[in-house]
Amino acid sequence: MNLLKARLCRKGKGKSLRAFVFAGQGAQSVGMGKDLYDNFDSVKELYNMCDSSKLIKKCCFDGPKEELDITTNTQPALFLTDLACAIAFSEKSGITADGVAGFSLGEIPAATYAGLMSTKQAYCFVEQRAKAMQSCAEKHKGAMFAVLKLSAEEVESICASFERQAFPVNYNAPGQTVVACADNIADELQSAVKTAGGKAVRLKVSGAFHSPFMAEAATAVGDYLKQKSISFGETRMPLYSNVTAKVYETGNAESLLSRQVNSPVLWQKTIENMIADGFKTFVELGPGKTLTGLIAKINPNVRVYNVSDMETLSKTISDIAY
Fold first, then answer.
1. Considering 104, 211, 241, 258, which one is annotated as catalytic?
2. Cβ neighbours of residue 216 under 8 Å, at least 6 residues apart?
């Protein structure tokens, strides 16, 4: 019996499943995670175990923003914050997930929560992933834009006109597709989007992630996973992949984690698949509430909540009971 069927049997036929979804790069903000750290010993243990130098904790809690926004700091910082939110929420509410997904970097804390890797292994992996992506971003200068008001097909057509200098990389929701491009065509791309009737909003990331510009980073990530001979555990729940929008299968973790770096994030399809599989409640874990907004656009009939700090934790625990 697969994990989804087991969850459905345990909940009872016809019962909806609950998903945890983990925030990705671009959601970071100075101060994230601090009040959870101050209120939960389990969160303190997480930071102390992973961040022995305390440099990432300082970036999370105190900034400055310019330091936090550097990829080699952002990704470990978000990993810890996302997991801190999950730990605090489950501890305070007694609520656990029936399945998980994460957006971009968020897929790593999702995989950790599901049991694919140990927390320490995952944190070390995130550090290496961040270094590889930052190095690639410095070598291949790029930018990313959220393109609004246009269909995915229209965005694909615009990108095709730039002869492999622009790529649709995050299929977020109807009317929202993120594009990665070479930095030297960023202004032209914005103009092309405007001419087509859309709007291009530049994202606060430091490279053209999830695009062919990240090919060397994907190779480096794959090499790291092979060299470390990480023994992936059996997940305790379904873990959905950005690359395929489907559940991870035994033996494909190394390939999916490597390919994720330079492949599009199929977020809309992932959420659609999860809903089709029985998930009707989604709790976003991590700073901000970008994913709850996207999920509501994908399907306004599901329940969405977010946990980013003590205030939203308490509100979600209160609201989810109804």
1. 104
2. 132, 135, 136, 139
